[in-house]
């Protein structure tokens, strides 16, 4: 019989394809890394980085009490920033569930004085405000004995016994079922930690050491909620069953981090770039590397220039408030989006590939050219051979002086028209 067995090819449902379309048009979302680790102010990897034994780390939930947490305020902040969705850590590598789970007591309701499900509150606030919600879910776990064989990280952590991999897979399925049953419509699941089970020689990743059972897990998710978009931060080309491709701290096809992607890894799925506002995902009191408004906006514009979304992260403080610097950054982006969002939302990749000086987006017959260098007067668009009717400054009733020759298109931007962050030029195509 085996010769007639055909590998099951993933065919997305109609609901799923519609959700992908929505996702591709959304362009901007909020990433939230929040957990009991936030209390130590040293990022979400603190358990691993400081080799904190299980019994010591387990003290953290006992005083996690975010009295200032206001889900509606978080959602309003995201919405005012121009964001269309939120992706929050339901369970990070420390293995602590930030939601009411029946399959482990190691969760926010059972183990903290706060005693409430923060995801539930966020889900309700999102629904009211028409913001979509994604759950980040870690495949790797530094707390669960059944996460065995251990991966490349967390091996130094004391206090764990050996367990059974198949039980761990069943545990994840049970938790994902909870997440996709008790919180209404969930826009997506954002997996992370795949790479933990890859061989590692200190420099390069090698073969995968375990079976993650993605076929079963992805099928379960799509059966529970067909529209739920699956992404996996595995840093390889998309796997069958996934609905979008994410790029951590790198633009699609770039590899400045060392674990990024090559051009050949970029697939055909909707894309999402994720990045931090400072240099940390989880709350970090020593991080002073806050990106400027200019850097953040240009990053979003470049992402859109690849046809990708930007998922921009905040690491809320242990009391439930968002760091003031992060709030400020988001407020500034919101202002910019209110003025220029038309050139980002609902667009696709434009005819000029993003580089340090420019990016382009496109909607129908309109190309939005985004120019980042306000010191420059003459811009040259090599090989620009798209027939056009008109070139003017976006939102200003002023034509742009230009010239076409066999090499491409030349634009002249007068000093008074240049914007420090982004000078937007609107090209109407024929
Ligand atoms: C992962 C997480 O480890 C991190 O805490 C955060 O949630 C981020 C969004 O995603 O970051 C990675 C991903 C891959 C590697 C290291 C960190 N890697 O390949 O070693």
TrEMBL record:
An example molecular function term from Gene Ontology annotations: alpha-L-fucosidase activity
Entries under SMART domains matching the protein: Alpha_L_fucos
One of the protein's GO biological processes: glycoside catabolic process
A cellular component term, taken from the record's GO annotations: lysosome
Source domain of life: Bacteria
Domain Glycoside hydrolase family 29 N-terminal, residue spans: 7-342
Positions bearing the site annotation: May be important for catalysis: 274
UniProt keyword list: Glycosidase, Hydrolase, Signal
EC numbers, comma separated: 3.2.1.51
Enzyme class: hydrolase
Matches recorded under Pfam families: Alpha_L_fucos
Cross-referenced PANTHER family: ALPHA-L-FUCOSIDASE, ALPHA-L-FUCOSIDASE-RELATED
Function: Alpha-L-fucosidase is responsible for hydrolyzing the alpha-1,6-linked fucose joined to the reducing-end N-acetylglucosamine of the carbohydrate moieties of glycoproteins.
Family note: Belongs to the glycosyl hydrolase 29 family.
Identification of the protein by name: alpha-L-fucosidase
